[in-house]
Design a protein that fits this description.
Elements: H1 37-53, H2 56-63, E1 92-96, E2 103-108, E3 115-117, E4 120-124, E5 130-135, H3 143-151, E6 161-165, H4 171-179, E7 199-201, H5 206-223, H6 235-243, E8 252-254, E9 268-272, E10 280-284
Parallel strand pairs: 8-10
Antiparallel strand pairs: 1-2, 1-7, 2-3, 4-5, 4-6, 9-10
Helix pairs in contact: 1-5, 3-4, 5-6
């Protein structure tokens, strides 16, 4: 069978209709004979990456310490709060600095219930209130890149005070970046552990809704044997998932929130398959 998306490659991929970043599922079997490896990789590296790194599910995954995917490099996990490059999309995890009381950026640490700071620049106003948080991406290696990063912050003649924080183990890199632009800055270090108050902020994009549509569609393909996904009726849905063409409301509709006393709140995805009519993927986020 040919791939239902490109209609060219052999459908020999093992597709995870439930993204791996959501954790391990008992008795899970991947979807087979529907996607080629090229389309499976393209969808996973764009649509699912956004879902795994910048979404309500990503927050729940991190705060419940659900093991996630690697970030495309061996033995390196994707960190949803730490951008990897300038302009990289990410979530903000803000909580008070125990020393100054100013909200700074944090990330979940390696042990459940613990956090640590990320390397960042906090722009302060005249009253020492934080007006901008600028994470220092992990891939920045030169002073030129650091200057480009600073140019994106709200630094003006009357607003030039900044708090420079280096994550534990990242002090040398941060000091070198500032030294290359003739800036000598004291490295602020923080004690991790836990913080009393925290909040998360970010914006979902069209990739997020494409991921929800993909999950619902591929889940239906796995468990409804009478459809292959190659049918003409699914052409708009396939085009939305692969190319982002179309309005998400054509394929997704809301349903009542679901929760269970046996575990934390989560995200419910259902595929409705009436005897007559379209299959609809429904989602509800908590």
């Amino acid at each position: 069978m040919l791939c239902i998306y490109c209609k060219e490659g052999e459908a020999d991929a093992r597709e995870h209709y439930l993204p791996q970043c959501l954790g391990r599922f008992e008795n899970f079997e991947p979807l087979r004979d529907r996607l080629c490896n090229a389309c499976n990789h393209a969808i996973g590296s764009t649509v699912e990456r956004e879902f795994c790194r910048k979404s309500p599910e990503a927050v729940l995954r991190s705060t419940n310490w659900i093991k996630g995917q690697n970030a495309g490099k061996k033995n390196r996990k994707a960190q949803i709060y730490q951008p990897e490059n300038i302009g990289g999309r990410h979530l903000y995890f803000l909580a008070p600095d125990p020393e100054s009381g100013i909200d700074i950026l944090w990330q979940t640490d390696t042990k459940p219930g613990t956090v640590k700071e990320i390397s960042q620049i906090v722009i302060l106003n005249a009253q020492d209130n934080a007006v901008e948080h600028i994470p220092i991406p992990t891939e920045i290696k030169t002073g030129r890149e650091q200057s480009e990063l600073l140019s994106k912050g709200r630094v003006t003649a009357s607003n030039v005070k900044a708090l420079i924080i280096a994550a534990s183990g990242d002090e040398e890199r941060v000091q070198t970046l500032f030294a290359e632009i003739n800036q000598s800055v004291p490295m602020q270090r923080r004690k991790g552990g836990s913080v009393p108050r925290q909040f998360f902020t970010g914006e979902v994009t069209a990739f997020y809704f494409r991921a929800l549509a993909k999950i619902g569609f591929h889940y239906a393909l796995k468990f409804i044997p009478t459809i292959t996904g190659d049918e003409g009726a699914f052409r708009p849905l396939r085009n939305f998932i692969r190319n982002g063409v179309g309005d998400a409301s054509q394929f997704l509709s809301s349903c009542d929130p679901a929760s269970s006393s046996a575990g934390p709140p989560g995200h419910r995805l259902t595929a409705l398959a009436p005897q007559a009519g379209d299959i609809v993927g429904n989602s509800s986020g908590l």
